[in-house]
Amino acid sequence: MLSVERQALIAEMAREKQLVKVAELMEKFDVSDMTVRRDLDILQKRGIIKKVYGGAVLATSVTGVNQDVNMDVRVGAFANLKREIARRAVELIEPGDVIILDAGTTTLELARMLPRYEDVVIVTNSIPIAHELNGKASSLLLAGGIVRPSTQSTIGPKTKEFLSDLRASKLFLGASSLSLKRGLMNSNLYESEIKRTMIASADQVIVLADSSKFESTSYHVFARWDSADILVSDHLLPETIRRGLGDQGVQVLTGAGQE
Description:
Blueprint: H1 3-17, E1 19-21, H2 22-29, H3 33-45, E2 49-52, E3 55-58, H4 59-63, H5 71-74, H6 79-90, E4 98-101, H7 105-113, E5 121-124, H8 127-133, E6 139-142, E7 146-148, E8 153-155, H9 157-164, E9 168-173, E10 177-179, E11 183-186, H10 189-200, E12 202-208, E13 220-223, E14 230-233, H11 239-247, E15 251-254
Parallel strand pairs: 4-5, 4-9, 5-6, 9-12, 12-14, 14-15
Antiparallel strand pairs: 1-3, 2-3, 7-8, 10-11, 11-13
């Protein structure tokens, strides 16, 4: 197993259990104490966990703030729920659609599940999504701009200008964190600006987010719920959140909870 794969699994364990122990990780991955502590050091530097005596806790359980996490770690977290969401989201794409896929790990999972379309135009600012979709759409457009290494996405004035000139039928949008009261949040101001531009360019805004996004917060609100039409989430989404979003006019769709 590659170190980045092991670190992604450790991050996922921390999200699920809030606390991981060094001895537990040594046994699970059959590695030394030194290897586990090196992995925890890397994850702590990335803001995912905080080391404590004998192990580590999820950073959000200490600070309550969702940090800007490298994509190669995020892609492994809650992978089963992301696939569940992606399967449900595929059903929303119709012949003749012009869709925007926001950068993110759940939208990347959606891209992986898309069949080959003869009459669907897809626009994205994500390099991994563009690579995944090569040959799957009648037309594939990648927004140029400044490449942000941690998310492998394009940002900046050129990206914004490109997206502003578009008119899309559907936007599949990601977010770092979600709140019933505050709305949709992100951990980077430049990405938030691109997300706002995408929202303004789309007739229908579909948010893709697993239920854990309601358990954390980020420092920048880029949209309120009145900007969203649909939330596609997983089967673990609490009923209180479903009702709360329904009261704000957001349709909630969830997956079946099956692999």
